[in-house]
Amino acid sequence: MKFPKLSVQNPPIQLPLDVKNQPIILGRFVGYILLTFSLIDYVEILVPTHFIDPVWEFQTMGQLVEHIWAPLLGLTFVFIQQQYISRFELQILSFLSWLSLIFGLLYLLMLPLGINDSITIYNDTSAQITDQAVQQKEQFSKLKQLVNKAQTNIEIHNLDKIINPQSSTQSNDSPQSLKNKLSRQVETLALQASNTAKSARGDLANNLMKKAVKVNLGTVLAGVSLITVWHLTDWVRIWRKWYA
Known about the structure:
Distance between the termini: 59 Å
Number of helices: 8
Radius of gyration: 34 Å
Helix content: over 70%
Shape: rod-shaped
Strand content: under 5%
């Protein structure tokens, strides 16, 4: 077996200790910047507040879950250990450690609110779709009654213009034939409106279910992640007690 030859003329460069610590210092600096941006994002998301509105609450929870990566990365970077640390920064890190626990618990407490909001949004939106379907059904029922009561040629052709407003040519059918045609057309339109309402209700359930799973599961993962950060940074809290 042949071993690679080491070049004596170009030995590995031994970097000074302060140079080796530069990546750690840079990482901590980026971590504080990420935490600052996270604070700005959270203020933008939460202000103005509409806590009574379930739609606002649910959308806000989704935004908080989507932005959790920034504080997690920021906390990871600022807790990178280095050889020396000041007492002031030790207090800051201890504060951030406890803040991780507080926010982690807040994320977990959002889970019941997210479940309740998703159910409320579904019920309210489904009720609106149902009300619209009932109104359309009543309108088509009244329209069909008008078609059945129409007797004169003028009345029938006027109803034809109402039901078929896009038709620019007048129908050449006999009054009775046109009347039967309009009656069938009203029934078809009523059936289409009913099917559209059912489809809208099904789409609402599917979309809201996917969003609810994402948001509610995200709150759990975010809460557990932040509490884990608090648990893994117990060394900061211990050092702060020693050097208080």
